[in-house]
Amino acid sequence: MPRSTHSRAFTLVELLVVTAIVAMLVAILMPVIARVREAARRVACSSNLRQIANCSFNYAAENFGQFFTVGGRSVQIAFFNYGDSTGVKTSWRSTDHDVDWFEALRSVNLVGDRKVDIGGGYMRYPPAPVWNCPSRDYQSQYELPNQTPYDQLIVGYMYMGGVDPWLTPYGDFPGLSPVSTFTAKPVWMLAADTTMRIGYGWGLGRASAYANMPSHVGYGSEVDAVKPAYRDGAPAGGNEVFADGSCQWIPIGKMSRIHSWDTRSDAYNQRKAYGYQADWGQYNPPTAAILR
User: Fold this and answer.
1) pLDDT at position 4
2) Are the beta carbons of 131 and 225 closer than 8 angstroms?
3) How large is the average pLDDT for residues 143-166?
4) Do you find a cis peptide bond into 165, omega within 30 degrees of 0?
5) What distance separates the 2 farthest-apart alpha carbons in the chain?
6) What is the average pLDDT value for the chain, to the nearest integer?
7) Above 50 in pLDDT, residue 95?
């Protein structure tokens, strides 16, 4: 008898079973792939911070041991032009006012070598990509005098160089941040991920400065140390580079409130920063309010 040339087609039930199996595999693999990608981003992030630290050491070596100084010796995500400290609570040294920090950053390639028009006729050095954390969808950028009271470069990491004093909700304390290579303790944080809460929650505040904070959003057991009310959008932790050049991943459960330029009692306006140091000096931080 002649052999049939008709092939057997899949039944609807078989197609549904195959579809269900594929969907299950995708559901299983997607979190694994996401974790692998985030692990790679954390490695790239730590590499950025090490490069920022190396550039800082190079600058200090040529400038009597002094590290870059952030805006007003207080705003740890911004560099002001010529050390402008208008309206910021500081204990500035008069020499800081004579430093063009944009030129200082250029001297060690932390901004581009040629100025470009960034709008409104303002010419500025473009910030180097190393200031952008791979896990945070944010590009370092300038806020101009026609936009804010300051002429400032907002960067994608916290930079603690020159911060003095520390302003905290529990009082003001002598600076615990690297000002110079001669006075900095090895365990003091030099730069770190933007593990910050703006106002009432994670991811709030104006986009030009605070978009997509914090950098490394955590899930599941990564945020078990955080109170349930604060878990949505909470970070798993952050990378930190210290004054000795070492870099570590710090889980959120190990962090405490650290210095921030805005510690007003009005919760809507507070900029809450979190981090870890092995040496807190006179500062004895209680358990961070977001933690259990």
Assistant:
1) 56
2) no
3) 88
4) yes
5) 104
6) 86
7) no
